[in-house]
Amino acid sequence: MLSSIRFDDCAFARFFAVMLVSCLSPIAICAKATAQNACTAAGIDANCCAQVCAINPLCCSTAWDANCGATLVSIGCICNGAIPINSHTVAIDTTTATRDLNLAGLCDPGPFGDDTLHNYTVFSWTPPDSGRYTLSTCGLANFDTRIALLAGCASPTVLGCNDDGDGCSAFTSILSVDVIGGHQHYIIVGGYSEADIGVGTLSIESLQVQLALEGAHKWEVAAGGNGHWYVKYAVGSGANWSDIAAKAQNLGATLACANTASENRLIGSLSVATGAGTTVALGLYQDLASARYLEPAGGWKWTDGTAVSFNSWSAGEPNNGGASANEHFGQISANSTGAFWSDNADNAAWTHAIFEFGPKGLPQPATPPSNDESSAPIALEIGQFNVVSLVGATSSADALGCGAPLFYDRWYSFTPPNNASYDIAACGNGFDASVVVYNQATRSVVGCSAGQCTTSVSVVAGTSYLIRIGSPDGTRIGLPTLFVYQTPVVASRDAISVNFVGGASDNGSDGDFCVDTAIFPAGADGLGTLHWTNIVGPNSTAAAAYATAGKGDAPTALLDGHGLATTTAINFAVNNPWRIVSYPTDDTGRMRRGYLDSNGLTSITVSASAIPYQRYSAVVYFVGETADRLGSVSVNASAPIYFKTDSIPGGVFNPLVRATATSAPTATRASFAVFTGLTGSTCAMRLFENGPNLGFQGFQIVQETTPCLADLNADARVNAQDLATLLGGWGTTAGDLNGDATTNALDLAFMLSSWGACP
User: Fold this and answer.
1) In the Cβ-directed half-sphere of 738, how many Cα atoms lie within 13 Å?
2) What is the CATH number of the domain that holds 412?
3) By residue range, what is the domain housing residue 744?
4) How would you write 276-314 as a 3-class SS string?
5) 14-39 residue pLDDT tens
6) Do 310 and 444 have their domain in common?
7) What's the farthest any 2 CA atoms get from each other in the chain?
8) Do 517 and 583 reside in the same domain of the chain?
9) What are the tens digits of pLDDT across the range 512-552?
10) What is the 3-state secondary structure (H, E, C) of 678-709?
11) Quick one: 479 and 562 in the same domain?
12) Number of domains in the chain
């Protein structure tokens, strides 16, 4: 029967291939007839595919799955197409990657999801020296990353892996691992899921360089020092002094030894940098076997073997205090009067230590970028986004300050074409930098963000300006986006704008991470305004409680575009408020980072009351969990406007698109709807779910300004002629000024309040 299989009868052959993973000629011929398409379509090298398919023909003829990936690992082909790394950073781009690496049973990247690196890119790397290195995409990529390190291409050689690095934004990764210098290694960078692809930077630093980047100090020989490096080190929970000393030794260091008053001051300055309430170890211990041992002050030594020739004991120390009287290890603390020691127990609650490296222990940081100093700025194009890395940059010593610190700065320049106000923004990608703007010729300060990430400056056409961008707090793991643009005109300050910032769970408990107030006009074209109110929580009561706790704004006394409180309040209730994990750099995008989810409801109603405007437009913003979900929205029981939801990219939202469809069949992708000519002090905005998981992102109530509404004959005055027209239309729509479809005492009162010349 097998001999009668036709070349194109692949389905029948696959059935037998499940039971016979062998090279029976009909099955092999059928696999060959499909040109190994399932394997090569997955982005695998053709030679690797040939090896895999000889073992498991289904990987070519049917579909590429986890078993195929395991086979690929077993034959050492996962490193095919590796990109060589020749510096401490390399660009990542997984947008076209298709290969997955399943590490199940080999390495657990983290507690969430599967153990697979999805759509991975592979790099080859040969460390110059043996030791511990840190591989990082922490804050350096725009997608949820995973990292693995292999000492070869076979599965037993996985040295480590990581999913979410501690303190890393956007679920990016850090992996610290010991390697052997001179041997080729392979770094795999992929995503958390099939949807997680993107671009970024992979950073590779030796532990020593990493420590240097985090604030190590060198005691220069020229300054009377020993050429050693000193660095603060955060120890793990439960570590004792002996563990810390062993850790220092493993890193090629010792616990710091203060042999002189100057060295003690240096070590003390680092202990201050650990913060308040810390317990900091140094290399001072009491040798219980010494002939000089005597409690409490005898037998004290340094870990470098030297005796204590200089001391800086605090008053009453050492005292071998404590319940067990076993304080044999040195602790340092410092204040404005000096750095002082005390004795402590081996199992004290140590939080930090000061490590000391020899002259060659910490190599110099990376080569500074070309625009590290103001003498060589990089010219910027106005209106273009520029991603900036602060890695390798130094802190300019000669730059003028403006009241706030600025570290690891880089320099740029721009020349505006007109006399105008320009905004300089350095926000986004999980890292907000600070900026200072100078007149390039005079070096005078013309603008300063003062620790924030944006500033506005008035500039003169044809004049060149310098922009200094740097870190406001001394960290530099991240890629801020530098953007220079002409200050937009605020469309309307007479507007009440609200965005629902959501939360990662149904109680909105982490909504405070999303609270953003627009820095420049946010909202749909022609309707953008400042001062958005940020609401956290699933209902009005919860929002008020969160606001009291400092998370979000209150749902009452909403701000207008001038930043002034109004009488307007909102009322709403849903099951789930959600936060969109995205880091857009523009304020309109940041306004859209959360939404009220319709999950479990057929509609969502948000009611605004005590609106102070006589006539206004309502702008409703919406989104869906996925694209093309059908919905509709109405205001004050108006005819609905239909829409299909837009997609939500991983980093930057798509441009806002207005919905205009009056029927479901004509609905297209959109993100907001506008209702004009509204009146009355209450506005009920209702979002209908015609597909699951639609979201109400926010709204605006924008005053419609109609100059001299009571001037019915358009003669630029409100006078007796207009009054006669109004009275003549009493009970009809002829003199209706407030939009309630009749002419009555309310319209008369409005006309009398507007009496006289039009403004």
Assistant:
1) 16
2) 2.60.120.380
3) 717-757
4) CCCCEEEEEEECCCCCCCECCCECEEECCCCECCCCCEC
5) 333 333 333 322 222 222 323 346 77
6) no
7) 115
8) yes
9) 333 344 444 566 655 666 678 888 888 899 889 888 887 77
10) EECCCEEEEEEECCCCEEEEEEEEEECCCCCC
11) no
12) 6
